[in-house]
Amino acid sequence: MKKLVLAGLLAITPVTFADTLEHVEEEVHIALETIQQLKAELNELKAAVKMQGEVQEASMGKIAKAAKKFEKIHIGGYGELHYNDHEKDGGGKTKKVDAHRYVLFFGYDYNEKVRFRSEFELEHGLVKDTVDGSNGGEVELEQMYIEVDLNDQTSIQTGVILVPVGIMNENHEPPTFYGVERNDVEKYLLPATWWAAGVKVSHKMSNGITFEAMVGEGLKGATTGYIRGGRQKSANADASDLAYTARITYTGMPGLKASLFYNHQSDFTQVSTDNIEELDIMGASAIYNFGDGFEVRALHVQADFGGKDESGAFFTNGFDEHQGTFLEVSKRMGNIGIYANQSIVSGEKVSRQYTVQTAGFSYWPQGTNTVFKINYYDKDYSSESQNDNDTDGFDMGIGYEF
Q1: Which of 2, 98, 107, 394 has the smallest number of CB atoms closer than 10 Å to its CB?
Q2: Do 158 and 126 contact (CB within 8 A), yes or no?
Q3: Do 120 and 142 touch, CB atoms closer than 8 A?
Q4: Residues 284-301: pLDDT tens digits?
Q5: Sequence-ordered list of residues with C-beta below 8 angstroms from that of 243, at least 6 positions apart, any chain
Q6: Is this model's pTM higher than 0.85 or not?
Q7: Secondary structure class of 71 (helix, strand, coil)
Q8: What one-character-per-residue DSSP string does 253-294 give?
Q9: 285-311 burial, b if ≥16 CB within 10 A, otherwise e?
Q10: In terms of CATH, what superfamily is 75-401?
Q11: Where are the domains of the chain?
């Protein structure tokens, strides 16, 4: 019996083993196909991840490049709004509001030694054609130059440049000075803001002395000798007669900034056939901060005209020699500052010879570069013939810089 069972098992075993082997081979084949499919999907996933990484890396590279370029861009500006309430002794009141200036700065650093700077300005709120030019406003390109550092001490600027004279011509942002309006000495005798197309070289020494020299477009004034009216503002400027400016500044003593400056032009009108010839403008300025916010500013300017024939009224009446003196005392206590100043002006005609006194205070909210100003205003003419034009009143204004 046992032999019969053993014989039966031996008879069916090859068939069962064969079936099992065939099933295993089929499972292995399916497993291999699955592995190949998974491997293909894995390769596709790796390729996708790699591509995404490359795209992300490229994107990050573009962002980093743009950010690096943006770091080289400089944007800023300043502006001021004025309210004036004045009354003349002879009668007549003036009350006006003026969006005097809106200015935008733009600059770009090409590298550590080469940079571009510009300043674009809108004056008096709008630009409008008028018959008499009143309330017309102006759009002006006040600065546009390339500056190159030749070494650590010497640099050169070329383009439209502010002329290196006085206190305010290069530093006239509203939060940096007292009083709603700019002082008349620098308004009429220098005249701020004064810019010209040309070339300027600056050299700083380790002892606190800086030398500056500039050659550029000259003034183109009338025979009346009105200096401010001679500014050409680099607008199709007549370059027949160039102007030359030099300044030396000392900052070697803590709290002190003192300067001597000189500007020469051989023909103020740039017309060889009229009587007016050379104009020399010279002056000295000083700013001294004693500490604790107490500061004194002083400026003296003299402008001398020459002529072919000096027998005319312009010369015999002394209008060819202009003088101006500005003195200011101020005290800043935290965010509030008080001041008093005086401007003595002697210009090209009787109505340009007077003294202006102002006093008031400024408030810088939370110590920011925004400012609120108010001041008393008093103007007294030197000639008795102008007594009716003596004026007093007050000014208010806001300003900012960023």
Answers
A1: 2
A2: no
A3: yes
A4: 999 999 999 999 999 999
A5: 196, 215, 216, 217, 218, 219, 263, 264, 265
A6: no
A7: helix
A8: STTEEEEEEEEEES-SSS-TTSSEEEEEEEEEEEEEEEETTE
A9: bbbebeeeeebebbbbbbbebbbeeee
A10: Porin (2.40.160.10)
A11: 1-71, 75-401
